[in-house]
Specification:
CATH topology of the largest domain: Protocatechuate 3,4-Dioxygenase, subunit A
Strand content: 15-25%
Radius of gyration: 19 Å
Order of helices and strands: EEHHEEEEEEEEHHEE
Number of helices: 4
């Protein structure tokens, strides 16, 4: 017998037999939007903007090159956690959040590292370069050890450093996280997927843009000189943006974040993401449920195979760990294993 309908305000609960916090991503996103409307109605949005304008400036910075071109499509890598390659965090209630440092659900483990705020501004190129209000943006990256939650050995039950937000009227999404590591074979980076609306985010094939944020070398050098990032120093020595197998085609010029702050107080990373919905996405989730394009690095221990399938691009695969499931990958090797 079907459970009796339950309601939250004017909305029926999609999972009436479950608690409110277990209603799924679509329900969480709807709740977020309703709260924004309420805040806008009482003028709290304007107050927040005024406070932000009064905030102190950062101590150091590294600027990225501005571009009016579309953000390059990149691989989602072998550890997206979006259902295209194994686990799907986008089906879980709690994924809509701005602070992604800790796991949610059954675990509350917090990733350690230098504080980092990430701010992406999504631009709608097909609509006169207006702010792309209402798009959903899913972000994920490796931890201080170069490992990925949900995939690396020992982290299969963690989901930290993953989160989704809905772009506001300015097209902006913001996250609180930690500065990611550099693992073997890949330049330090942050993954993200942009979805056209709140209803489409639970299916990775609906993404209208899949790309990565590149982190500037001077900022990485300063961050990796601090305790906990020692392996990143060694891994960075053999890398450059020009030779990276994801950013190397243009040196990451369209994906290089603007960074302010320092290693002691933390960093703020910003990037403008130009999305053109009139073009066909060329990367992201691979056919047949694979983890995306073939560029990346060697996977973390116990994670999906980083070696391209027969006929895939040469020289970009990583050696998979023993017993890891086979899938197309991003390809690079995090410290104790890693992603791309």
């Amino acid at each position: 017998m079907n459970p009796s309908p339950r309601w939250f305000g004017s909305r029926p609960l999609p999972r009436p037999e479950e608690d409110l916090e277990d209603q799924g991503l679509a329900f969480d996103v709807g709740t977020l939007i309703e709260r924004r409307k309420v805040l806008a109605g009482v003028g709290l949005g304007a107050v927040g903007l005024a406070l932000a304008a009064c905030a102190p400036t950062s101590q150091s910075s590294s600027s990225s090159s501005s571009s009016s071109e579309e953000i390059p499509d990149e691989t989602a890598g072998p550890y997206p956690g979006d259902g295209s390659n194994g686990p799907d965090v986008l089906e879980e209630s709690g994924i809509v959040r701005s602070d992604i440092r800790s796991s949610f659900g059954e675990s509350t483990t917090t990733a350690e590292g230098i504080p980092m705020n990430l701010e992406l501004t999504i631009v709608d190129m097909a609509n006169g370069n207006k702010p792309f209000e209402g798009v959903a943006v899913y972000v994920w990256h490796c931890d201080r050890d170069g490992e990925y939650s949900m995939y690396s050995t020992g982290l299969e039950n963690e989901n930290y450093l993953r989160g989704a937000q809905v772009a506001d009227a300015d097209g902006v999404v913001k996250y609180t996280s930690i500065f990611p590591a550099c693992y073997t074979g890949r330049w330090p980076h942050i993954h993200f997927e942009v979805y056209p609306d709140t209803k489409s985010i639970t299916d990775s094939t609906n993404a209208i843009a899949t790309s990565q944020v590149a982190l500037p070398k001077d900022i990485c050098d300063a961050a990796f000189a601090t305790s906990g990032y020692e392996k990143s120093v060694t891994n960075m020595k053999s890398l450059s943006l020009e030779t990276d197998n994801v950013f190397g085609d243009d040196g990451g010029v369209k994906q290089l974040g603007t960074v302010t702050g320092d290693a002691r107080s933390g960093y703020t990373v910003k990037l403008t993401v130009n999305v053109d919905t009139t073009t066909e996405p060329t990367s992201g989730s691979a056919p047949g449920g694979g983890g995306g394009g073939m560029r990346g690095g060697t996977p973390p221990s116990g994670a999906p195979d980083g070696t391209p399938p027969s006929g895939g691009p040469g020289g970009q695969g990583g050696t998979p760990p023993s017993g890891a499931p086979s899938t197309p990958s991003d390809n690079a090797t995090p410290s104790t294993g890693s992603n791309t």
